[in-house]
Each structure stands twice: as C-alpha cells, then as structure tokens.
Amino acid sequence: MTALPEPQVRDSCTSLGLMLLVVLFIGLARAIARRQLLRPAAHAFILEFLATFQLCCCTHELLLLSEQDPAHPTWTLTLIYFFSLVHGLTLVGASSNPCSLMMQMMLGGMTPEMGTLRFLAQLVSAMCSRYCMRALWSLGLTQYHFSERSFACQNPIHSDLSKAVITEAICSFIFHTAVLHFQEVRAKLRIHLLAALITFLAYAGGSLTGALFNPALALSLHFMCFDEAFLRFFTVYWLAPSLGILLMILMFSFFLPWLHNHQTSSKKD
C-alpha cells in the first residue's frame, strides 16, 4: 500500500484522537452513572444510551477514515477490528443494537419492559450522536470535517434490494449466532473472536450495504437516506436484520435442541 500524504496522516491521527476521546468520555460517564444511578431502569437507560452513543460516534468517524484510501481497505479493516475490541472491552452490559435486544427478549433473557426501555435509549442516542458529530465536524479539524456531510444522503446500498436484504439478514444471523455460541468462551478470547467476525462481515458485505446489521447504527449514519427513501432503507436496515434474528431463533428452537439431544444420547451410549 502506498504511503499516505502528510496531510492525510495528520487527518487520520486527528480522527483517531477524536474517537479515543469519545471512548474516554463515555468510560468516565459510565463510571459516574454506575455510582450515582441507583434505580435499575434509569441505570439501564443511561448505560445503553452511552454505549450506543460511543458506537455511533466512532463509526461516523470510521466512515470518514475509509474515504481517505478507498482503494486499499486494509487500514479501514484494521481500525474496525481495533475499535470492535475497544467497544467489546468498554461497553460491557450494553448491546447497542436493537436486534440484540430482540434476541434476548425472544430467548427469555430480558423482559419486554426492559427491552423497550433500552430500545428507546438506543434510538435517542443514535440521533444525538448524529447531531454531536455534526457539531464536531463544523469545527473543521480535518479536511474531511464539514457539517454539510450530515445533510446529504450518501447511499451505502450498492446492489439491488433483494441482495441487500439477504446481505443484512445473513450478517445479522451469523453475528448473533456467534454471540449466542461464544457465551461460554472466556471473555478475553470471546472479544477477539467477535471483533474478528465483525471485521470479516464488514469485508464481505461492506461493498453491498456496509454490513451494519444494526438498525440504530444505520439510523444514525444514514438518517437522510431514511428520509428520502424510507421504505427501501427500512427494509434493508431494520426488517432484514430482524429477519436474521427470527431465523436464528427458529434454528435454535427446532434444530439445535434436537442436535443437542442426539449428541447427549450418543455420549451416554
């Protein structure tokens, strides 16, 4: 890969510094929330809000970095892996993804009331992160920072509707299946495995839809696109990941229990 010009290196360092500052700020806010918020509902709402805010802000900035050298995605994929690790380490206890809430509720791991509360926190945070990044971009810290970016729809869908729906559904299915399977894996190893999987999915499906498989994140990144072509974007970024979750639940409910019982009986024999 060819070396980046000095201004691009400086802009990259500025963007990285901005993302790390967001992570540090959210970490401090989460620590304060744990100590000051005693009511479970308020505690859950604030932690989910902060986690979604961190994820969305960092992803906004990652999209800018990916534009600096689009012909060589290695740098972008490295950053996706690194920040997936950072999010996995710092956002423990929050999902930052409506599909994850849906999975937990359908499997009985979360009450509908708590799921609804966390879902509202994610939506509010997704929109707040968008306007926060717009304010930061207006400062012009790098050549890629300008507030007009938030007013334009930069269409991330580069395929027909059916392929886009299949891509998001499969990514959601694979990721949440892994989340469910890796629960018994040691935490340090699990975080690396999930970060590697996220990076792979971004590489495999990024050129088609961005491989977001996160409705709240999609709303924050592409809000103007939802405004211009609501049905298309709602189908790809909300219905398709939810469909992936439903398929995963059906698989675990009907196929894997039979497989588990079959394996158990084989061991006994």
TrEMBL record:
Keyword hit for Lyase: no
Domain of life: Eukaryota
Reaction(s) catalysed (UniProt annotation): H2O2(out) = H2O2(in); H2O(in) = H2O(out); glycerol(in) = glycerol(out)
Topological category with respect to the lipid bilayer: Multi-pass membrane protein
Subcellular location: Cell membrane; Cytoplasmic vesicle membrane; Endoplasmic reticulum membrane
GO molecular function: glycerol channel activity; hydrogen peroxide channel activity; water channel activity
Assigned keywords, A-Z: Cell membrane, Cytoplasmic vesicle, Disulfide bond, Endoplasmic reticulum, Membrane, Transmembrane, Transmembrane helix, Transport
GO cellular component: a single term: plasma membrane
Protein name: Aquaporin
